[in-house]
Amino acid sequence: MSTATAVSTGTWNLDPTHTEIGFTVRHLMSKVRGKFETFEGSIVTAENLADSSVKVSIDLSSINTGTADRDAHLRSSDFFGVDTYPTMTFTSTGVVDKGDNELVVTGDLAIKDVTKPVELKVEFLGEGGDPWGGTRVGVEATTTISRKEFGIDFNIPVGGDTVMIGDKITINIVAEAVLQA
To answer: What is the DSSP letter of 49?
Structure first.
């Protein structure tokens, strides 16, 4: 099924209580997971899906990895520098319908003072009514970025070529958005 024929046109706002913007990064021999608690975003779906757009702004101080000391360090100038760079933003530059409920959304990701193009692989989960008389859409998206490319290169050597924190960050988004009247 083509996603283009499955989505109503209009402006959809992310529902923060039913959306999670999370990440995974290598830490020594394991992985650390976290998420951002505060964000806002909108999806504008057009008749021609290629003309659709996505904008998201994330409050970097809302990072939550489940460890207060680690979260405070991530907010510091070693990582995000939230006093100077409080938000991370994504603005789409293109949408391609791959068919079978799969999309590719390209866009510009801005972290700190660096903006780089990224490609999100998106699965369209569906559209339908909710108990409050609204219309919702669900998507899952993923991408992988290099934190060093965004000027986030703090690390601690632990011997040889091994460092404490991996460079690749996997971003996972599970989102519900509500159609605006």
So the answer is: G
Contacts 24+ apart (CB under 8 A), 147-153: 147/25, 149/114, 149/116, 150/109, 150/111, 150/112, 150/114, 150/116, 151/111, 151/112, 151/113, 151/114, 152/79, 152/80, 152/111, 152/112
The residue range of the domain holding 134 is 3-179
Q: What is the CATH number of the domain that holds 104?
A: 2.40.128.110
Confidence band (pLDDT; 50, 70, 90) for 164? confident
Q: What is the pTM of this model?
A: 0.93
What is the mean predicted confidence (pLDDT) over 98-126? 96
Structural domains counted in the chain: 1
Q: How far is CA 180 from CA 14, 110, 124, 131, 133, in A?
A: 10, 26, 19, 15, 12
